[in-house]
């Protein structure tokens, strides 16, 4: 936690609502990167490499610059999203955070999620449970009927997007998506949202969160029920839910597409 807080305080928060236009660049339509992303990734990469020199670091911005960086996801590695929710950050809005995971053989074994503004710190280790600010937690639903769903349609093809709208969405009460996995995963375990649909499943967005949600007693898995693997980052589709029962219900609706 100390490292993530330090990076937030040194590289990210000083630029919150203080960026000028020259410090924001477009990476792709609807996707931006800032000088804070680059500075945070450099700090995290240096620290993690010093802590465990033999382990490669797969950082979002490094992978954007060189796709070969992704090859390390098949082995043991660190996975870093230095500033998740950059879209929000660049607009001077919340939420945004830092995601770090440690994977072995394509499977996340540890994950950390830090909310830069609130200081909320989520951590999980495979087989050891999920924690928020040092306290072990158990995932809970909202208890609402119909369940609350945060459905991201951003990266879906048009035909699939319309099918989700017509065949899945009517079974839920839709709520906003935070455009930030570092916020969406905690919402699924802390009684804020019940289910969520993700189409793009890049490792830095989901490695830490999927592990943390599963360790909390919720469920994150591929629509066919198979486990999320960081080395299958180009495979679309991931469902998250506050409980296995809610996940099963969502998967059943998705199977009808």
Features:
seven-stranded mixed β-sheet; 257 residues
Summarize the structure.
With 257 residues, the chain is of the alpha+beta class. It has helices at 2-12, 35-51, 60-65, 86-90, 158-167, 181-189, 203-216, 244-255, and strands at residues 24-28, 31-34, 57-59, 77-84, 97-104, 107-115, 121-125, 130-132, 135-137, 148-151, 173-174, 195-198, 219-221, 238-241. The protein contains 8 helices and 14 strands.
Task: Please tell me about this protein's structure.
- The protein has helices at 2-12, 35-51, 60-65, 86-90, 158-167, 181-189, 203-216, 244-255; strands at 24-28, 31-34, 57-59, 77-84, 97-104, 107-115, 121-125, 130-132, 135-137, 148-151, 173-174, 195-198, 219-221, 238-241.
- With 257 residues, it is α+β, with helices and mostly antiparallel strands.
- The strands form three sheets. A seven-stranded mixed sheet has the order 3-4-5-6-7-8-9, with helices on both faces. A five-stranded mixed sheet has the order 11-10-12-14-13, with helices on both faces.
């Amino acid at each position: 936690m100390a490292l993530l807080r330090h990076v937030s305080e040194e590289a990210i928060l000083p630029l919150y609502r203080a960026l000028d236009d020259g410090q924001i660049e477009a990476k792709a339509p609807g996707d931006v990167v800032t000088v804070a992303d680059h500075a945070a990734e450099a700090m995290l990469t240096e620290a993690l490499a010093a802590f465990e020199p033999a382990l490669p670091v797969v950082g979002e911005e490094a992978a954007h610059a060189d796709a070969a960086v992704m090859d390390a996801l098949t082995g043991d590695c660190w996975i870093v999203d230095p500033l998740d929710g950059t879209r929000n950050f660049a607009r001077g809005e919340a939420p945004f955070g830092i995601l770090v995971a440690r994977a072995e053989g394509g499977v996340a074994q540890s994950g950390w999620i830090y909310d830069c503004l609130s200081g909320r710190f989520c951590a999980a280790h495979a087989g050891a449970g999920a924690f928020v600010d040092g306290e072990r937690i158990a995932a809970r639903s909202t208890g609402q009927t119909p369940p609350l769903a945060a459905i991201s349609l951003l990266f879906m093809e048009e035909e699939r997007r319309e099918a989700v709208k017509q065949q899945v969405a009517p079974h839920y009460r839709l709520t906003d998506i935070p455009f930030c996995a570092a916020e969406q995963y905690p919402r699924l375990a802390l009684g804020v949202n019940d289910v969520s649909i993700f189409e793009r499943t890049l490792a830095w967005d989901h490695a830490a969160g999927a592990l943390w949600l599963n360790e909390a007693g919720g469920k994150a898995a591929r629509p066919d029920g198979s486990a999320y693997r960081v080395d299958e980052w180009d495979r679309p589709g991931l469902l998250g839910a506050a409980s296995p029962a809610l996940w099963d219900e969502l998967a059943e609706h998705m199977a009808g597409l």
